[in-house]
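fyi for ur records
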Amino acid sequence: MALLIPIMQSEWMSEEGLAAELAPLLPGVDIRCAAAPEDATDIVMLACSPLAPGLARRLPNLALVQKLSAGFGTSLPTPTCGQRCALRG
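which gave:
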């Protein structure tokens, strides 16, 4: 099980910084930064800001999208995610 963190707002927080904060809270979870996602089939969770167009489609086992910033309504194009994917804001 892997969590991918793509943050496209470098002035807010780095992917590496968030990964370091989450690691003690999520023992056993493989936390990956977008720069080195490795095998996309392992990724079941996405914590993003914002949700990049087309990213969810490239993650075949994605089950949860957690939006990290305000404006959750901008991440709701449901065709972007599969039917088994939960969206959280």
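Residues 2-88 form a domain with the Rossmann fold fold (CATH 3.40.50.720). thats all i got for now
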